[in-house]
């Protein structure tokens, strides 16, 4: 599947966290970035469904709650403040963390992926200058792996976490 791509992304993120050091605010329970719908690829959706299947085997009750949240979200109008269905509302952690989309893996630290823009969480780098953020930036180069995998799948359309988990 896309395990090599995930390893590349996770390695770049680990380096960005290392370089960001004390500026990085991300930690278990911080879920400010887990709100609102956002597009994910079919690779992300496939990874989420596999993670859900593994969760069903390990903790059927928790998996059922994820599906219930996804189905509830799928049947309601989208809202920018709605939590991700994979987010455990009690603990503020992701029930499918190991299977999370690439967008979730790369958000927070100063990371540049196939673009000139460096995206950072607004809770990270508070008080940092543009130069301090730039000094922490890591460039992620997947060498076209994600695009090639999506092409192999014939998966051009995007979806959301909600719809990947609600079906």
Portion in strands: 5-15%
H/I helix tally: 7
Main sheet makeup: 2 strands, antiparallel
Structural class: mainly alpha
Q: How large, in whole angstroms, is the Cα Rg?
A: 16 Å
What number of structural domains do the residues give?
1
Shape: globular
- Which whole number gives the mean pLDDT? 91
Q: What is the element string, with H for helices and E for strands?
A: HHHEEHEHEHH
Contiguous runs where pLDDT drops below 50 for at least 5 residues: none
Question: How far from one another are the termini?
Answer: 21 Å
Number of strands: 4
State the share of residues found in helices, binned by percent: 40-55%
The strands making up the biggest β-sheet line up spatially as 1-2
Explain what the structure shows.
- The protein has 167 residues and is mostly helical.
- It has one domain.
- 46% of the residues lie in helices and 6% in strands.
- It contains seven helices and four strands, in the order αααββαβαβαα.
- It has helices at 3-20, 42-58, 60-74, 102-106, 130-136, 145-153, 161-166, and strands at 87-88, 93-94, 111-113, 138-140.
- The strands form two sheets. The protein has a two-stranded antiparallel ribbon. Strands 3-4 form a two-stranded parallel ribbon.
- Strand 1 (87-88) and strand 2 form a beta hairpin.
- The two termini are 21 Å apart.
- The model has no long low-confidence stretch (mean pLDDT 91).
């Amino acid at each position: 599947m896309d395990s090599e791509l995930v390893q590349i992304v996770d390695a770049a993120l680990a380096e960005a966290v290392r370089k960001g050091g004390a500026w990085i605010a991300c930690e278990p329970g911080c879920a400010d970035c887990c709100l609102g719908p956002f597009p994910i690829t079919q690779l992300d959706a496939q990874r989420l469904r596999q993670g859900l299947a593994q969760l069903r085997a390990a903790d059927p009750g928790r998996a059922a709650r994820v599906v219930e949240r996804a189905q509830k979200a799928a049947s309601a109008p989208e809202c920018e403040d709605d939590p991700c269905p994979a987010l455990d509302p009690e603990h503020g952690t992701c029930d499918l963390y190991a299977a999370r989309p690439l967008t979730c893996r790369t958000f927070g630290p100063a990371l540049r992926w196939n673009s000139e823009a460096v995206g950072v969480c607004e809770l990270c780098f508070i008080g940092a200058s543009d130069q301090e953020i730039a000094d922490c930036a890591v460039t992620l180069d997947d060498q076209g792996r994600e695009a090639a995998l999506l092409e192999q799948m014939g998966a051009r359309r995007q979806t959301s976490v909600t719809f990947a988990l609600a079906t």
